[in-house]
Amino acid sequence: MLKQVLGLLLISASISFAETPPVPVQAELLHPIEAGHIKVGDPVLAKVEVEWKGAQCHLRKGATLKGRVVLENERTRTARASKLALIFESGECNGKDMKPIPLTVAAMIAPSPQDTNLFNEEQMPALSDAVGLGLNGDSIAVSGNGMRSVTQAAQTVIFQPTQRKPPKAVMPGQVLGMRNVKLNVGTGPEGSSIISDDHHNLRLESGLQFVLVPNVKARAASPAAKIVPTTATTSASNVARTVPSVPEFVDTTEVCEPPQCSIAAATDTSLASPGSVSAISIKNLAYVSSSNRDMYHFDREAALSYLGENQLLFTFDPHELVPRIGLSGPWRTIRSVLIDVKTEKIKRVEDWLVPDGGQYLWPIGSNKVLVHIGRQLRVYGPGLRLEQSVVVNGPLAFVAISPSSKYFAVGVVQERHTAAIHRQLEEAEGREPEEDVEVRVLDAEFRTLARVVRSSFDAPPVLSDEGEIRIPTIGKNRWRVVEQTWAGQRRVLAEVRSTCRVSAKSLPPDLLFITGCDQPSGTWYRILTSEGKPVLKGHSSSEELGQLAEGRAASGLFAVAVTKASKSIAPEVAFRSNDLESEHIVLYRANNGQKVLAVNVASPIPTFQSFGISPSGDQLAVFKSGEIAFYSVPATGETAKQ
Predict the structure, then answer these.
(1) Do residues 345 and 360 touch, judged by C-beta distance below 8 A?
(2) Has domain 9-115+161-229 been given CATH number 2.40.128?
(3) Mean pLDDT, residues 19-40 taken together
(4) Which CATH class is domain 262-632?
(5) Domain ranges of the chain
């Protein structure tokens, strides 16, 4: 649902609500309300969109307001006007506790029909805006040259409000974007404002923006009084604008010409894969494949990663009972098995206690992994030796890593609400409520370079070695891939066409994997260089899903895996593991996209991290049902025969 935000509002002194003009509270309705489907006394929940400070109450951005319905009239044959009156009585003042704060509705703005978030107009400032450091190359600027030191940056938390375009003005009693809906300020019971519709049964959608005023009395609003926003959005119908002519859009990644770029061949399971050099059975490791359950995406129940040239780390969920250790939230056991690739013997086995069901392991460099264990992020090296750790003070939202592992972005959820309010919001919205996410930017030594606060509804950042990758929309089905460098420079890498939101992932060696849609025929994917030049161009039909990509910097190789189902599966439709026919894993050269090796896996396991490339690039490990298979990668200039 589109969030249409009005920004910080000031009411003109000519309005006669009070002797001292109040500063309005801007809030978003969190659940739909419809006359005839609610009753007087039912609760109403809204979320504060712009920080508000009063004499006795400070409402942070994202704070919850709670009110109730005080008047409800359904439209009938005899009662043509449908009416609702709402009053807000409490909010999360000065923290999480609900405290009295009487508010009434002064104006309303309809939710927009399109979603605006990181990929649209509602785009948060870049991480480089918060870092404020000279991070080009290996240098870190110090104070005295106009930039902050590492210590100064680490001690500063930057709250990043989204940036939006404002409407020209909103008047008290005005309703924007809702035809036939009227608002009579302060004329209802208990000082509420009456919302009415003479043509239809009144329904207020979630995402509706309220302008709320403290202590409003039932007085006529001055026609000259206006509510003037500083930042906001509006529809084209509210603000006349001149639309300049624009040149024809060109997808800069569409042209893929050899020898610098290759076209990925369509998945063909009839082609014979090269035989594996060796295989290790995992039946004695207590691995149990997950049941044939409904899934909407691949899971994180297993992972493969090399810890050096001759050591492979295999981790999986043994589905054992988790001991009660006094920790709140869902936990699971992950078994880590270190395998000597040459002797095919197990060198070490450990059990890790891992929170929730998200990603828990990230390869870094050529011989290390980052693992989320307990309340820590730990770095393990060869021999499964612990090398570094950092405390995670809360639920982990994400980890983003630059291709060279020089920079990390770690997101930790900061609860906005009490447990009781959290449950009410979850029931009202039908999803997890919005929370704050503190994002820490770390260097390779885990030193904090900056901290920022974003919304849990924002997409996780994508890091390049020079900054952050961002993909805003620039028109219908048009997207721009932009790199915002740590030094504050903005580089346009590519412009692409897609009927769905474009997603991105950075991977070694300094590549960018982007995916999009060309409905109804399927999805597309591209591998781009750090300059935005395409190296590989591929397309997947509606029967193919789960496009995955991994790379190894030292080897100069990357791999793309595409899973084929037995039927067409839409993104929002559940599937089961027995719907998957095969997984096609292809190894390519990073400099030109030349195919090096192709492997077909029958009845694949639906997990994200099912294969790994050795540091030197001479071996590919693939997790199959019941075994881990090893494939020899041809030397430079050779290609494995299909």
Answers:
(1) no
(2) yes
(3) 81
(4) mainly beta
(5) 9-115+161-229, 262-632
